[in-house]
Amino acid sequence: MKKRVFFLSLLALFFLNSCQKGDDTTAGDRITYSEQVPMLAWIGVPQGADAKQYQWLREAGFNYQLLSGYGSLRTVEDALAKSAAVGVKCLVACPEMNTDTEMAIKRLRDHPALAGYTTIDEPKMKDLDWVASLMKKYQSFDRKGISYVNLLSLDTQEKVMGASFDAYFKKATSVLPLQMLSCTFYPIVLRDGEAERRVNGLWYENLEVYSRRAKELKVPLWAFVLSASFRHTGGGGAYPDPTVADLRLQIYTNLAYGVQLLQYYTYSTPADAPHYTAPIKADGSKSASYERIKQVNQEVIALSGVFVGAQVVDVWHTGKTLPKGTKALKVPKPFKGITTGDGGAVVSHLRNGGRNYLMIVNHSCTKGLSVRIEASAGVKEVSKEARLKEVDWSEARRYEIGAGDMELFEWEGIND
């Protein structure tokens, strides 16, 4: 509960006008919410954009953005004003943050649209000491704002990281004054010569490691959703244009591991990477992926009462072969049996207030999954509209979960 209060007070959210609001209880048979799942647009609205671009950002479901490429404090202040008008908070960076840190932070820190300050993306081992000093400097002038840092994942080559992952991760999460924990991982890839995209199995191990450490540090876990497509810089394959199934798989798996802010890379096409296909093109128009992201985000926002502030009780996996670093399913009460096909699933037990949730996420972003479930009376289905449905569990039930999708169940009370 302390973690939730800290997180929500630090990151006070704004809401879509069309979203249902409530008190995190159920009104009739619907799970309502007062806080939207935080969604951050990495490389958000570009410098100098008009109000329409900010409205598009909010309409797509984003309530946070990371400003990139802003050339002055004045342009950041302009972006904050436009963001505030649509209910979006910002992580900011500008030259004055380096040349006159105290002045810049004191001008920005009380702005209602400020979420925090970007320090560095993907620091290497040799960078950690000076990054820690920079974060402490920022925090000395603003204790509320996030000093944002995004770390490297266990999939990063040692020669790039400058140390083994274990050594890097231990130092990064010990030396840095972290207010949240984040790292880069884009799990869905399309290799050269292959017709079907695949999921990098190390993704689950990385989530296991990072979610465990976030829990130890009592800080919220942030994770990425790849929302743009581009080729690997070193060759060998590409990150494909995300389908609805790709987006669902990334989002629901992250939420299954307790992620409390979803970061979408990227929202706008980077100025130095015109080969990216992002939701917002280089000319400022929408690409086809914009509508897909908007669709899935609205689906997830409807379930905010389940996920915002949720605590992970446990996470398991099923399937013929378990992903590295994960553990086999131990069916929690009041379920009696959960059986999936060979492709397997993530099975997560979440707790939010006095309610328990079990989420089953299909491992595959290309194939459906059949699941057989036995449970005791009192376990309810939760629809994508956050409606609770009574279920007759006198016999086993079968569910067909689409590619990348999930099934969600709810029951009341505390039972470990």
Please outline the major beta sheet.
8 strands, parallel
Radius of gyration: 21 Å
* Outline type: globular
Count of DSSP helices? 12
What does this molecule look like?
This protein is an alpha/beta fold and 416 residues long. The protein is 29% helix and 25% strand. The chain is built from twelve helices and 23 strands. It has helices at residues 2-10, 51-59, 73-86, 96-99, 101-108, 128-141, 158-161, 165-175, 202-217, 244-256, 288-301, 304-307, and strands spanning 26-27, 30-31, 39-42, 64-66, 89-92, 114-121, 146-150, 181-182, 188-191, 198-199, 221-226, 230-231, 237-239, 261-265, 311-317, 335-340, 345-352, 355-362, 369-375, 380-382, 388-389, 397-401, 406-412. Strands 7-6-5-4-3-14-11-8 form an eight-stranded parallel sheet. Strands 15-17-18-23-20-21 form a six-stranded antiparallel sheet. Helix 10 (244-256) runs parallel beside helix 11 (288-301). The longest helix is centred in the middle third of the chain and has 16 residues, at 202-217. The radius of gyration is 21 Å and the shape is globular. Residues 1-28 have low confidence and may be disordered.
